[in-house]
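Complex record, two chains
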Amino acid sequence: MFGRCYERRHHRYCGRLPQAVLALSELNVKDRGIIAYLHSEDTGQMQKLMSIGVLPGLPIVLLQRSPSYVFAMGYSQFAIDKQLAGAIYVRIAN
Amino acid sequence: MEKIAIVGSPNVGKSVLFNALTGSYAVVSNYPGTTVEVSRGKTRIGIQEYEVIDTPGMYSVSSITEEEKVARSILTDEHPRVVLHVIDAKNLERMLPLTLHLLEAGVPVILVLNIMDEAKRLGMTIDIERLEKELGIPVAGIVAITGAGVDILRNKIKEYTPGKIFTHKPKFNESEEFNYNIILKRQEHATQIAKLITSHKESSKTGIKEHLSRILMNPLTGGPILLLVLYYGLYKFVGNFGAGFLVDFLENRVFAGYVNPFAIKWVQYFVHIHILQDLLVGEYGIITLGARYAFAIILPIVATFFFAFAIIEDSGYLPRLAMLVDQFFKKIGLSGRAVIPLVLGFGCSTMATMVTRTLSTKRERIIATLLLALAIPCSAQMGVILALLAGNPVAVSVWLGVIIFVFLVIGFLTSKLMPGEAPSFYMEIPPLRFPQMSNVLRKTFSRIMWYFKEIFPLFIFASFLIWVGEITGIFNVFVKILQYPVSWLGLPDKTAVAFLFGFFRRDYGAAGLYDLKKAGILSVNQLVVACITLTLFLPCVAQLLMNIKERGIKTGIGMSVFILFFSFSIGFLVNFLLNLFNIVL
């Protein structure tokens, strides 16, 4: 009834996974999606992300989780720490 | 003279375009009131001569970093006739919002799509004429590194007339800058334009460079590669070749064989006053000591280091190293970004202290400055120290172990004790590139020139001070005073002279020890204790001044006093432990 189930870090999702919005820090390597929104208690962190062009609506792929988070947007790659990765929320594509 | 300003994010080739436009001649100077360097040069287009300004990298007009503030004030205060916004063609969609922002502010922009060849290789085509129509401004596609398309760009500069102005909301407005909605609108607009003018042939194959990049960024493979880079780049090339072979050649052959005997003969022939003879060619003479240390010992070491560093820098390895060490660096209160000044510190800590500006919080800058001053030996010093301890791996390990221990403990303690926000790490990982020899050589050369301009006068001055000190007897008084702390370390009185030199330059001090070793005065235990103390010891005069300039007089002096006491305490402790356990190295 629920279709396939997906395992993701500490979560189990069944059914309509494409709608799932997760923080970049929760994604698996090679997961891709569209940035849904940025959220952080610390507005400075949001400024930093926006200034390098991390903005809602843009496609993003997680390439590496450790020792730092590495993601690609278009043909650029960025490395960020866990705190910043926790501020980027991604709508995962199938 | 009318001005052309070059702006854009880091890593898009602004400086390469600057060189292509101006030839290589540039005047690099600090932007008034700041410590950010801006290059200026001249170019002739048609009959008109322009001043070209290469601005520091900026991701946005919103001025988070000092570099961005400078780039912004060049735009607002210097009224350039044309602003060349350089972007990486393959990242058009992400970089176009800054173009739109500049246009909204009424800046006279020509858009320059650089690295067109890479975009093409990735299967991307860009309709430049269409882009010109959409934006209402001239657009030029170039490959700055080969010069392709630069003539077309020159033409467009010649024919430039201001184009249309976009408004998502009027003008630069400080309070509106981080308005989420405006930034989003701009990005939407950019995405829309990018869709219209680009087409991709999807090429899914991951290139060799991408594989190599992953290998470098994987801790399991990246760690060993880092050790290889350090071993071959630092130890083999700088240590063995620079500090070993080249120093030996220049010092023993060139100086001892030709320069010194010639200078001594010449001076004795023309100068008949004994004191002046001493000043020029005496034991601590300007030529026999000052120039010899500067050219025969320091120059080859620093030159080989800067050469190796430029290759590592241009290949794009450093950001990958930064992401590898970030988690570990957080424990000592730094972000991964700090790895760049710290590695540069192995070349010249003074220059590295200046580079701590790229760190984003004051707390990080202070911690990095302290670690550079205390526990990172510069290449000159390290070269001499490795030469001193050569052939005794146990002695080298004891020295290395103590220095690493101090680095970690002091880093950890300062990060615990110092208030301020925790550092955050974000950095672009540029594609790996094969370093261009011409660029590497230019960088190496300009850094060596900087180094010499900064330190050569100090060498001469140090020789002069020692001469004055000797004549007046002050030198002897200082040496006498220093003999007390030196004897607490279990070292012979003569080392006090090396320590006094250490005040002028750390490497001067190390080179002083070198002379003592050659005379066979020091045991291995004593050498190790002396090397440890001297590594940790007060920074050279140049670095002391730089610390004060960058961190302010209170912090700068405070740090130096701490380091003075700390280095002798550690030296004392090591000697005490060696004696206590009866260890003979």
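Note: The beta strands of chain A are 5-8, 11-14, 21-23, 32-38, 59-64, 69-73, 76-80, 88-92.
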